[in-house]
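input
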Amino acid sequence: PSDRFQVQYKNSGLEIERSGYFTGYDSEVQPGIGNSIASSVAAFLAPIFPSTLAILNQTTGARNEIPWDDLRDSNDLDLLLDGLLASRASDVGSSFGGKGGCPSR
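output
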């Protein structure tokens, strides 16, 4: 990797620890504990989030809103996340080495 990448990587706090593989896994711990905590947190945070997801079409500039329930009940959320994750990091923003940036609101 280039020196520029290394600097951005370190400045973002994303350095890989040199200690090796994670050895703190304990097979005796019940996974249900973490799942119940995550469910409780999700139930607590759900009212804080808006009921719709705003989507901006960069080509036309049109802004649409999609209800979260519609996304959750169909494959649309999976497709949306696939599209976001398939984007090249350099197209996402300057913090990843690209020339892009966050769109203005």
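quick obs: Residues 68-95 form one domain.
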